[in-house]
Amino acid sequence: MARVLTAQSPGPGTTAHAELRPLASPGERVVLVAGTCDTKGEELGFLRDLLREARLSVRLVDLSTSGRHSGADVPAHLVAAFHPRGASAGSRAIAVRRLRR
Questions:
Q1: Considering only CA atoms, which of 67, 38, 62 is closest in space to residue 48?
Q2: Quick one: three-class SS letters along the chain?
C-alpha cells in the first residue's frame, strides 16, 4: 500500500517529525508522478493533468533538493525525511549521493 507522511517542514538544526497516512483509500489504485519539481515542475504537472483527464487518481511527488515549496502532494522535505541522515541534505550533489545509499 502506498503511503505518504505528513509533517511540518523542519527548521534549522531540527529533523522532520513524520506521521504516515495513506496516499489512497484501501483498494484504490493511484499513479505516482515523481520528479524534481524545481526543474521539471511544468512537465510533471502536464503528466499529472493528462492522467487526471483519463480519470486516474494521481499524486505528485517532489524529489527536488532546492527547498522551495512546489505544491506537490508529497513535498520534497517529506521524501527526504525518510533518509537515515534526515531531511537536511545540503547541496544537490550531497543529496544525490545520500539518496543513492
A1: 62
A2: CCEEEECCCCCCCCCCCCEEEECCCCCCCCEEEEECHHHHHHHHHHHHHHHHHCCCCEEEEECCCCCCCCCCCECHHHHHCCCCCCCCCCCHHHHHHHHHC
Q: Nearest 5 degrees, angle CA 79-CA 39-CA 1?
A: 30
Contact status, residue 45 vs residue 19, Cβ threshold 8 Å: no
Cβ-based burial of 77 (10 A; exposed 0-12, middle 13-18, buried ≥19): buried
Give every CB contact of residue 12 below 8 A, 6+ residues apart in sequence: 88
Using one digit for the tens of pLDDT, what is the confidence trace for 37-68?
999 999 999 999 999 999 999 999 998 887 78
Q: How far is 17 from 60, CA to CA, in rounded Å?
A: 21
Instruction: Name the pairing type of β-strands 3-6 and 58-62.
Output: unpaired
Q: Is this model's pTM higher than 0.70 or not?
A: no
Query: Cell numbers of 46, please?
Result: 502536464
